[in-house]
Amino acid sequence: MxxxxxxxxxxxxxxxxxxxxxxxxxxxxxxxxxxxHSDHARWGHGRYLATHAALPVIRHRLGxxxxxxxxxxxxxxxxxxxxxxxxxxHVPGSAQIRVERGGEVWVVSGDYKVEADGLSEPFVPLRCxxxxxxxxxxxxxxxxxxxxxxxxxxxxxxxxxAAEGRTSILAAYGLGKAQRLMTMLxxxxxxxxxxxxxxxxxxxxxxxxxxxxxTRVTAGVDAKSHPGALVIAPPSALGTSWAGRFGPAAEAFAxxxxxxxxxxxxxxxxxxxxxxxxxxxxxxxxxxRDTGAxxxxxxxxxxxxxxxxxxxxxxxxxxxxxxxxxxxxDTPEPEPEPAxxxxxxx
Length: 346
Known about the structure:
By secondary structure, the protein is of the alpha/beta class. Helix content is 22%, strand content 24%. The strands form 3 sheets. Strands 7-8-9-10-11-18-19 form a 7-stranded mixed sheet, covered by helices on one side. Strands 1-2-3-4-5-6 form a 6-stranded mixed sheet, with no helix packed on it.
């Protein structure tokens, strides 16, 4: 599909004049990567370009790759096309990618959120003519509470469990969400981590991100050694023998999908905390408005209703079919529940 400076192919978003792809899902020679989540940073490309902050996790996940780092806001010329990376606020090191040639400016959002979380580099609005936006939570029912309120909810749950002699096991994605939760809940008690979470956390700590001390769960680390602990683990660990070592425990999920009651029921969870590293409905609308773009392409999420909404607002809107799978809660994107009629974003 030809649209101008960027085109949409079966390998990914492509810049013909620059000869590069952005977050391609099939092997290409030159790939510009927005962040380290596995649906955006895939193995098999000839050359990688990502922010200096994102590269350590990308290398950890992909192994021996040919990769180069770039600073935020640094402009790089690739075959006469100007590219630069700018904070997306999604997870540490994440970026939007700005592409310019002959006065035509495109921005590819990758994944993003507009609320500062105290850990990730805060989202920076970018002016452009065309904006490719995610819309993982592109329905009006998705509206996040302030982070401080969610932090209080999790802290109260943790403390109540500890008072009843139960370990609190909180499931969260291992890159970004897990470390965000750690920084939200300092000093309330011991925080234990699954090995997969701790490995990524160590990489981010080594880069200087201010993440509190945690203890990796190994032999001998359990409810007896750390009474009243909070355990942060991947969603796949819930209900397993690994989780069973903690004896009486309360399990909960931290994800934007917890806004949907059906997801909590299907996972058999009584407790879910609604917190996401993606923009909610107001955040999507604010980010799009701040670009000043007249042409918007929606990708990975509720693309069809979001496109209709954008067209109703006067945008030239389209849908980009991608193979981005999402990173919220390691769970397939659910069937949408009935949503209220779209309303103007605040």
